């Protein structure tokens, strides 16, 4: 009977290829199949770019997986099941599959759902995750800004249009990291002004990557159109 391969979730960091861990590097070298989220438009994700830097063997299979961008539960379930079966096909042949993801595989990652569905459909598959550097840690390093010290409390909050919820997040923490902030940036900046905290914020887009942009002056951002991979750190 063929031994089932292991599914690895490898965090490869927020964009800088040198922020990959030694363990993720080793598993990339060892795994015969490298799976990565594939963009429909053909551009490569940071995870894909980083994996390609460290994997040159022609014997490896680079397995691009397209994930549906929809809220339709029926479509999501169907497409996710299809994607998991594609990976299972390799695992059932005894091949280890290394799924690379930006940041950390256990933090707002595509791998979380991959792991969940794989466990439901094929519970016999061994699943191993390897932590990676998340974007908010990359931003803290870039800003030379301690996120938490001593007994300080930090909140990591997906930014939404709920202004009062965002206000409470700021009030209840010494530091707040707002993730995916671009879509509500004008509202958040307005809120910071109301609270007298506009000078306590810093914003980073595609942090640590070759496309990184940073701002510490919120006035420069009021009319900016920023990418999806944008976060804000507010430290009171």
TrEMBL record:
GO biological process: cobalamin biosynthetic process; methylation
UniProt cross-references to CDD domains, sorted A to Z: Precorrin_2_C20_MT
UniProt key word ATP-binding: no
Pathway where it operates: Cofactor biosynthesis; adenosylcobalamin biosynthesis
Domain Tetrapyrrole methylase: 6-220
Highest taxon of the lineage: Bacteria
Stretches that traverse the bilayer: none
InterPro entries: 4pyrrol_Mease, 4pyrrol_Methylase_sf, 4pyrrole_Mease_sub1, 4pyrrole_Mease_sub2, CobI/CbiL, CobI/CbiL/CobIJ_dom
Record's keyword terms, sorted: Cobalamin biosynthesis, Methyltransferase, S-adenosyl-L-methionine, Transferase
Classification via Pfam families: TP_methylase
Molecular function terms, GO-annotated: precorrin-2 C20-methyltransferase activity
SUPFAM superfamilies: Tetrapyrrole methylase
Keyword Secreted on entry: no
Family assignment from sequence similarity: Belongs to the precorrin methyltransferase family.
Protein name: Precorrin-2 C(20)-methyltransferase
Protein source organism: Brevibacillus fortis
């Amino acid at each position: 009977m063929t031994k089932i391969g292991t599914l690895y979730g490898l965090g490869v960091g927020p964009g800088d290829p040198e922020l990959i861990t030694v363990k993720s590097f080793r598993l990339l070298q060892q795994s015969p199949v490298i799976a990565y989220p594939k963009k429909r438009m053909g551009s490569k994700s940071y995870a894909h770019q980083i994996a390609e830097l460290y994997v040159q063997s022609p014997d490896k299979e680079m397995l691009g997986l397209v994930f549906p961008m929809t809220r339709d539960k029926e479509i999501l379930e169907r497409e996710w099941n299809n994607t998991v079966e594609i990976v299972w096909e390799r695992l059932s042949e005894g091949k280890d599959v290394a799924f690379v993801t930006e940041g950390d595989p256990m933090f707002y990652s595509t791998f979380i759902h991959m792991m969940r569905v794989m466990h439901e459909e094929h519970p016999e598959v061994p699943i191993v995750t390897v932590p990676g550097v998340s974007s908010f840690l990359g931003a803290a390093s870039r800003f030379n800004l301690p996120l938490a010290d001593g007994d300080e409390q930090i909140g990591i909050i997906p930014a939404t249009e709920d202004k009062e919820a965002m206000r409470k997040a700021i009030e209840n923490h010494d530091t707040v990291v707002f993730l995916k902030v671009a879509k509500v940036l004008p509202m958040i900046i307005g809120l910071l002004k109301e609270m007298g905290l506009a000078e306590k914020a810093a914003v980073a887009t595609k942090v640590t990557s070759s496309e990184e942009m940073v701002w510490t002056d919120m006035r420069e951002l009021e009319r900016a159109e920023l990418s999806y991979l944008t976060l804000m750190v507010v430290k009171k």
